[in-house]
Design brief:
Blueprint lengths: L2 H9 L2 H16 L5 H17 L4 H23 L13 H5 L3 E9 L2 E6 L2 E6 L8 E8 L2 E6 L1
Parallel strand pairs: 3-5
Antiparallel strand pairs: 1-2, 1-4, 2-3, 4-5
Helix pairs in contact: 2-3, 3-4
């Protein structure tokens, strides 16, 4: 027999725990959450193998079933926390949509200015006097589109 077969025969059910530990360490090294579910399945399989006297074929079947179910369950539970495709994290213009602002300069010929925080922004919209409260409804080419609030 080979080295690994001798090791598995020597360790018995503990080989599943060792396999689970190796997979857990691999999870730490490799990005993502993929190997942890197989590590959990291996540790549970090792526990079952320690408690019940079953053959290695049954152990493998239990591991496969647990690995598949834990991977699917983990994906359902933890897969929802992925960032939205339309995240505004690094898109300052999109972050401002919906905010209210006061016109610094009147909108004349479709163009004016608002102040947001400490920045003066160019806006497009209908003709409105300076001091008018407006709502940002979108942006195009670095300019906000506004409408009366």
């Amino acid at each position: 027999m080979g080295f690994f077969a001798d090791l598995i025969n020597f360790l018995g059910a503990w080989s599943w725990w060792l396999f689970g530990l190796v997979l857990a360490i691999l999870e730490i090294i490799v990005p993502g959450t993929f190997f942890i579910w197989f590590a959990v399945a291996a540790i549970v399989t090792g526990t079952i193998a320690l408690l019940f006297d079953i053959g290695w074929q049954a152990e493998v079947l239990i591991f496969v079933a647990l690995a598949a179910s834990s991977a699917l369950l983990g994906r359902q539970v933890f897969g929802r926390n992925r960032p939205d495709e339309k995240s505004n994290l690094n898109d300052r213009l999109n972050q401002q949509v919906g905010r209210l602002a006061t016109l610094e300069t009147a909108i004349v010929d479709g163009s004016g200015h608002i102040r947001l925080d400490d920045t003066l922004w160019r806006v497009e919209g209908p003709a409105l006097p300076a001091g008018q409260q407006v709502r940002i409804v979108g942006h195009r080419a670095g300019r906000f589109t506004v409408e009366p609030a």
